[in-house]
From TrEMBL:
Domain called D-isomer specific 2-hydroxyacid dehydrogenase NAD-binding: residue spans: 107-285
Keyword field: Oxidoreductase
Transmembrane region(s): none
UniProt protein name: D-glycerate dehydrogenase
Length: 317
């Protein structure tokens, strides 16, 4: 069974894959082109992509050999699931193992935005800091403020727990249904998104990408937010209208924002680059050594199950 790993994975995972299978690695770690991915569909039995690989219907239709797409990551909006399913190609992902890392980063962005940490570091490095002052770069406290989680799955719940137990924040959440787990953070369920946005001091996005959530947070949603509030996105870039966000940041409707994901990575929306009140990180949500290795091992478990003719541990399609 031939396997293509489209990007470099942690060394321990690559060794485990190579020990058990005939694996081709991307030694220079440059994102593969659509032509490369299309060619792989006819040359390999298993394709192991990441979020940087667009596996659309055209790519999927390009070859007849691939029978499993074992995605390295929990999000799979870069894969045309319907096209894969129609062609009988199984798709798996790596849920659960990156929950803590992504929740940690959501809190990192929350603190950086509310305490103006990115702005402060830029001022200092540029030699513009003139010393401490009572009104210099004053931000916002988190204690007793309302965190509004848009989506309340594993990562949303982990973020809420950190914010509630660690920083004394109140928690509200918008989800498809009321979640019994919310009792652990004394969370309030809002069945209407605008109601949650209107009462939240910090809004954190934890929803999957895809057509159903595209630009869910648009100009109208941003206008519904409390004036002077903050927006955090560690979910997917496509769930947010970035032009509308830039305008909300310029106008003061939002005091700040923290983003880790963008619609067309590695491009960052130009409208945000000149704004001081937005923290921009390069998709670091799962970027700690322990998590990245665990993701790879989870992907390997799906490949092993497929090779043995067993049910996938983490099927998407």
């Amino acid at each position: 069974m031939r396997i293509l790993v489209t990007r470099r994975w942690p060394e321990a995972v690559e060794k485990a894959l190579a020990y058990k299978f005939d694996v081709t690695f991307n030694s220079d770690d440059k994102p593969l082109s659509k032509n490369d991915l299309a060619a792989a569909m006819g040359e390999f039995d298993v394709l192991c992509p990441t979020v940087s690989d667009i596996i659309d219907a055209g790519v999927i239709a390009s070859g007849e050999r691939v029978r499993l797409i074992a995605n390295y990551g929990v999000g799979f909006d870069h894969i045309d699931i319907a096209a894969a399913k129609a062609k009988g190609i199984a798709v798996s992902n790596t849920p659960g193992v990156l929950t803590d890392a992504t929740a940690d980063l959501a809190l990192t962005l929350m603190l950086m935005a509310t305490r103006r940490a990115g702005e402060g570091e830029r001022e200092l490095r540029a030699g513009r800091w003139t010393g401490w002052g009572p009104t210099h770069m004053v931000g916002s406290a988190l204690k007793d403020k309302v965190l509004g989680c848009v989506g309340f799955g594993r990562i949303g719940q982990a973020t809420a727990a950190r914010a509630h137990h660690g920083f004394g924040m109140k928690v509200g959440y918008y989800a498809r249904r009321e979640m019994p787990q919310a009792i652990e953070v004394d969370g309030t369920f809002y069945p209407d998104l605008e109601q949650l946005l209107a009462v939240s001091d910090v809004v954190s996005l934890h929803i999957p990408g895809g057509p159903e959530t595209a630009n869910l947070i648009d100009a109208a949603a941003l206008a519904a937010m409390k004036r002077g509030s903050y927006l955090i996105n560690t979910a997917r870039g496509g769930v947010l209208d970035h032009e509308a966000l830039a305008e909300a940041l310029r106008s003061g409707q939002l005091a700040g924002a923290g983003l880790d994901v963008y619609p067309a990575e590695p491009q960052v929306p130009e409208c945000l680059l000149g704004l001081e009140n937005v923290v921009l990180l390069p998709h670091l949500g799962s970027a700690n050594a322990e998590t990245r290795e665990a993701m790879g091992m989870r992907a390997l478990a799906n490949v092993e199950a497929f090779a043995a003719g067993k049910s996938l541990p983490d099927p998407v399609a």
